[in-house]
Amino acid sequence: MSGKYFVHPSSYIENPVIIGDKTRIMHFCHIMPHAIIGSNCIIGRNVTVEPGVIIGNNVTIEDNVMIKSGTIIEDNVICGPSIVFTLAPVIRPRDIKPKPSKLRPTIIKMGASIGANSTIICGNTLGVYAMIGAGSVITMPVPNYAFVYGNPARAAGWACQCGSVINFKNSRAICKYCKSIYQMLELNEVVKVA
Q1: Span 136-186, pLDDT tens digits
Q2: CATH of domain 6-168
Q3: What is the C-alpha to C-alpha distance for residues 68 and 47, in angstroms, rounded to an integer?
Q4: How many whole angstroms from its chain centre is CA 29?
Q5: What span, in angstroms and rounded, lies between the C-alpha atoms of 118 and 80?
Q6: Three-state helix/strand/coil letters over 118-134
Q7: Which one, of 190, 126, 185, lies nearest residue 158 by Cα?
Q8: What is the DSSP letter of 104?
Q9: What residue ranges do the domains of the chain occupy?
Q10: 3-state SS class at 164
Q11: pLDDT, tens digit, for every residue of 40-95?
Q12: What is each CA distance from 188 to 7, 18, 55, 157, in whole angstroms?
């Protein structure tokens, strides 16, 4: 462990781990060996972070979240309460002891928001600033800036970086709140242009 961070006395941290400055780990958490947690994060009550998980900077993980090995969470992500990240081998889902080389990584890109009680099936990527509605089950990759919800989660529209809904006309969208401009490219790929 290194840096100046807070760990509640009821939490259990197994060495070796890396925890960044100004990170707060609240009650009854379990941080397993070889986990990396960035700076200025909030890890809520009763969170489990398994070996090899990588969490970026300025990430909020709310209460009762299970983060399985093979999960990478980039900067500025918000994970609502009671989210589950699953772990499964590529070929044999009933494999009792999956080998790390067989695991499909789950990647949560910068700025994504995941609603309470969602389940993220391993091997999927949630795009930059994607927004996942509460109770969703993610069974496939989510594009950048997409808003999805349901079981299984389906596209419901697009979300601005500020969190408001954006609507495309002629492949362009302007957020009515923050005035950011987005361009729709081929294959439903969205990029922020201004």
Answers
A1: 999 999 999 999 999 999 999 999 999 999 999 989 999 999 999 999 998
A2: 2.160.10.10
A3: 11
A4: 18
A5: 8
A6: CEECCCCEECCCCEECC
A7: 190
A8: P
A9: 6-168
A10: coil
A11: 999 999 999 999 999 999 999 999 999 999 999 999 999 999 999 987 554 556 66
A12: 42, 37, 28, 11
3-state DSSP of 2-50: CCCCEECCCCEECCCCEECCCCEECCCCEECCCCEECCCCEECCCCEEC
Q: Classify residue 156 as left (phi > 0), alpha (psi -120 to 50) or beta.
A: alpha
Start-to-end CA span in the chain (Å): 40
Answer yes or no: are the C-beta atoms of 150 and 140 closer than 8 Å: no
- Phi, psi (rounded to 5 degrees) for 187: 60, 35
Q: In this structure, what token pair is assigned to residue 110?
A: 């910068």
- Assess contact for 75 and 59: CB atoms under 8 A: yes
